# Entry
Amino acid sequence: MRARLFRKVEGAVDRKRLLALLEGALAKEVLDPRRLSDLREEMERAEARRLQPHYLTSFFREALERLGGSVHPREAGRMEVTFVPPRARGPGVLRQYTRVTFHKDRVSLPGKPQADFLVPGHPLLDAVLKATLEAWGEYLERGTVLVDEEATEPRLVLALEHGVEDARGPVSRRLLYVGVSLEGEVRPEGPAPYLDLRPATEEERRLGLELAGRLDLPRLLEKAEVYAVERLSREHLEEVRRLREAEVDRTLKAVRERLLSEILYWDSRSAEEKRRAEAGKAAAKARAEAARRRAEELRERLRRREEELLRAKHIRSLPPRLSQIIWVIPPLAESPLAPEEEARRKLERLAVEAVLRLERRWGHEPREMPPGWPGYDVESRLPDGSLRFLDSKLALMHPGDSYARGTT
# Structure
């Protein structure tokens, strides 16, 4: 009995059919090892530059507390929300949460309560974002003054919202950050330039606003918008177009294969029933007509589906819309915090050099990134060829309590 069952199960699996399905689902482009390695490294760098969970955690805690809520740190990367204020409540939002986290790998911990994973679409996070924008969203329109410790000249950083849409609506949205010098030189600022900037002191803000009042702002904005349209928005559009065309071509091929095979089947059935009708078989004429109608319905369905998929290839770029303005200034030399800032910069330099020495001692190949590099300070290649990214952070507390912290 057992042997007979094994024979039946083995014969039930069409291996050739499964392999054909897999081949149809995989991309046809063949990547050479070098290109594959480059692609993997770019993905790792993009992951390192994304908005990290500790930044989101810091924002969430301060926003909820300013709205009147209570949140307390618990296990590493996890928090307990003991009170959600009325301003941050909405459909699906609870009054309190035992645990919440922005770290996917810390949702479940042995012996600890299950945590809510806060991602876009979670009722609590969406409600906090909505309440924060209602309370302080006007400040985004006013702009702000931030300080770049590595800068020697002031510059404008503009956030332009760019969208790509098709006939059915939005397909992709992205913030494009552009920097403009006082001379009108334009450069891309990366995905999140504000992460390496600090708030300005009252004196820095006052002097920065005085200088900003003498800017030819319309001319600088025009240069930034032209650069965004001619370069960054075009790159965004081409990226979306490549992905959309590959998806449409793959779907169109699968649709044609499936529907054409059904059309051929019903055409053959119709021809067969016609021969039977000519031979005098009862009801064969009706079956032939039904098979013919089914084949015609499938042809019409294929035509409509092809038109729909071909229309999906047509996407267009919307004009970039100015969303935020950041006036970035260098630190003031006469600032009363200058000695402390100088000590902080020296400690940061020592921390980076210590990281470089340790990485070399462990047999890695570290590379220090340029000042202001978004996301991390050191890129280190491991013996297996993979990359890891290290960001040294410094906190100045009370005298004698300084510490440096490295993150990967």
In short: The longest strand covers residues 169-181.
